[in-house]
Design brief:
The chain is an alpha+beta fold. It has helices at 2-20, 47-65, 69-85, 92-106, 111-128, 133-144, 157-175, 184-201, 208-221, 236-246, 248-252, 286-291, 301-309, 317-328; strands spanning 273-276, 298-300, 338-345, 348-358.
């Protein structure tokens, strides 16, 4: 069954992403703190994290060997609980896998159509969020620098906008009734190029399995000889998932929905934060000396997160406040230390705003 193939693809992709972000799941030492849904940031990971991780891995292996809906509910619950213990785990790839497995769990009859609509949402918003100068003028140019032969392409922002439109076009292919099977190769080519460039750039390896899984799922969905007649999802859970994938990212454009859950994939508009302190914070460890700038007085939190747990931190007002309190608590000069948040408006580079959270206000 094609649904079983998709489940295996998702579970293999999820397992690979988890292995590449090993420290984020509480296995081994990490300096970047866990950011729970409730409570304060803490670098102490209890045995509970390791036990839950073992449960997830067991369910992944069982599901890969024999895909069955019975495996999906406990797996989904464990994953969401682990994300509640540390919001950093709620990465775009994990969110995508959770939504795919949720669709498969809730109803079999409309799974095929719902999965195409879910996948289309990722491509549509992924492209729409790139239709702005932060990607076309900055991130696209960075991407093309991976190879000497492609560097000149970065001088033409119009090509960056073209990439964004291409992603939107891939969404249209998935939504198009009776789309020709040969169009599945567009997805293979698109993600192969991304994987090759990321490997050459030696950047963010954890998303490589996700790109492979996206291409494989699209390939399977477009490989059916006789596509089922499109029908509306009949289960409320499935409808809710599609609303989360399609509607809520609109709120993300106005900072009312988390960045990581809005399919803002390499859009370069993330709300970054820097911690400023005249004296290095002992909780950061050696990473402060390796990654700090401005004569060792500033540290970009994403640099710390990537070096410690292999992924960007989860961006939200809640987590930034948690990090501010966590770092302010370890500096010997709180009156001179602060968290500096950069907020941007995607279509207006002149509207950048820096928000200061001083330690004496925490």
């Amino acid at each position: 069954m094609e649904t079983d193939r998709i489940v295996r693809i998702v579970l293999c992709g999820l397992a690979a992403c988890m292995v590449l972000s090993w420290f984020m799941w509480g296995i081994g030492e990490r300096s970047f703190p866990a950011l729970p849904l409730w409570g304060e940031a803490s670098a102490e990971t209890s045995l509970l994290h390791a036990v839950l991780f073992g449960g997830v891995i067991s369910l992944l292996i069982g599901g890969i060997v024999k895909p069955a809906r019975a495996f999906l509910l406990p797996l989904l619950l464990l994953l969401l609980f682990m994300c509640a213990l540390d919001l950093n785990r709620l990465q775009p790839w994990l969110w995508f896998y959770v939504l795919v497995l949720g669709i498969v769990f809730f109803e079999k009859n409309t799974t095929y159509t719902a999965l195409r609509r879910l996948l289309a949402a990722v491509y549509f918003w992924g492209g729409t969020n790139k239709l702005q100068p932060y990607f076309a003028e900055d991130n696209f140019a960075w991407f093309t620098e991976a190879f000497i032969a492609t560097r000149f392409l970065g001088e033409y922002p119009a090509l960056g906008y073209g990439v964004a439109l291409l992603e939107i076009a891939l969404a249209v292919v998935l939504l198009w009734p009776n789309a020709k099977a040969w169009r599945r190769w567009f997805f293979i080519a698109f993600h192969t190029i991304i994987i090759v460039f990321l490997l050459k750039a030696q950047w963010n390896y954890v998303v490589l399995p996700w790109n492979a899984a996206m291409a494989a799922i699209a390939f399977v969905l477009l490989s059916t000889q006789s596509e089922p007649r499109p029908t509306a999802p009949r289960h409320k859970g499935q409808i809710t998932i599609l609303i989360l994938a399609w509607v809520f990212p609109l709120a993300g454009l106005f900072q009312y929905w988390p960045y990581q859950l809005s399919w803002q994939l390499y859009s370069n508009t993330q709300p970054e934060a820097v911690f400023y302190s005249p004296v290095p914070c002992s909780k950061v460890g050696d990473i402060w000396a390796e990654k700090s700038f401005d004569e060792g007085r500033r540290l970009l939190l994403d640099d710390w997160s990537l070096a410690s747990i292999g992924v960007p931190m989860f961006y939200s007002e809640h987590t930034f406040r948690q990090m501010g309190r966590y770092l302010c608590g370890c500096t010997s000069e709180p009156d001179s230390s602060r968290l500096e948040r950069l907020r941007v408006k995607p279509w207006d580079k002149d509207a950048e705003q820096t928000i200061i959270i001083s330690c004496d206000s925490e």
